[in-house]
């Protein structure tokens, strides 16, 4: 098994699945249960309110949402900033607009690469007389 340092506390541990040690996993699970219970009772809470009332950091709450552990469908006021433009988003790392723009950019880049590859193939060859 590979040995790694925990991303949260720095302790050495046998890495199996995650980048954090078993003690930190237990802490995260406890924090997750606390946040989930708070959101069940306070459906209109904002991110700041949840963090303040539960004692769980905003970054950890966002990580829970991005990992798919915490669903926001019943919590209309819970959102966090897009990593690209800062607009509020409720899923993933980017807002829908940035997701669409990045997807379009990647598609255009892929088209350009395919076109260049085809041109390179066409230009190679040997001529005989």
Automatic annotation (TrEMBL):
Protein keywords: Cell projection, Cilium, Flagellum
InterPro entries assigned to the protein according to its UniProt record, in alphabetical order: Flagellar_operon_YvyF
Domain of life: Bacteria
Protein name according to UniProt: Flagellar operon protein TIGR03826
